[in-house]
Amino acid sequence: xxxxxxxxxxxxxxxxxxxxxxxxxxxxxxxxxxxxxxxxxxxxxxxxxxxxxxxxxxxxxxxxxxxxxxxxxxxxxxxxxxxxxxxxxxxxxxxxxxxxxxxxxxxxxxxxxxxxxxxxxxxxxxxxxxxxxxxxxxxxxxxxxxxxxxxxxxxxxxxxxxxxxxxxxxxxxxxxxxxxxxxxxxxxxxxxxxxxxxxxxxxxx
Length: 205
Description:
With 205 residues, the chain is an all-alpha fold. The chain has nine helices and no strands. The radius of gyration is 18 Å and the shape is globular. The two termini are 20 Å apart.
C-alpha cells in the first residue's frame, strides 16, 4: 500500500470513526449507567467485535480476489456506488439513534462485553459498509495480507481512540446526542463524507 493511499485511509477512517455509530452509542449508554468502569468491558468487546467483522469482510474480499481478480475494479466501483447511496440516505433521512434515559439495571460485566461484541461483530450494515469501504484502499497487485493487517490495526486503533474519548466525555456527549438538531447535523456530515469518498472512486477529485 502506498503512503498516499494509507494516509487517505487514515483520513477517511478518522472522520467516519469520529461520528458516533451503533457501537459508540452503546458504549456511551453503558458508561452513563455504570460509569467509566464499564469501559474495561465495552471497549474490549468493541475490539473483539471489530476483529470478527474485519475477518468476515476480508475473507469475502479475498474470495472474490481469488476467483474474480479481473473484475475487482468493478467490485471497487460497486463499493463506491454503495457508499454514495449510503451518503444520500444519511443526507435525506431522519436520525436513527437518540440517546435515551434508561433505568440502572444491574447486569454482569460479561453481558456488557457480549452486548457490545455482538453489535459490533454481526451488524449486517457494518459488514456491508466494510465490504464497500476497505477494497478502495487495497492494491490488488501487492501483498494482500500485509495490507489488511495494516488496515485492520489502524482501523481498530482509531476506533479505540474515539471510544475512549467518548467514554471520557459521556455526560456532555449524551446531552449533545439527545438534541435532535445536533444529531441531524451529525448525520448530514456523515452523508457528505460518504458522498465525497464514494465520488472519489470515480476520480472526480
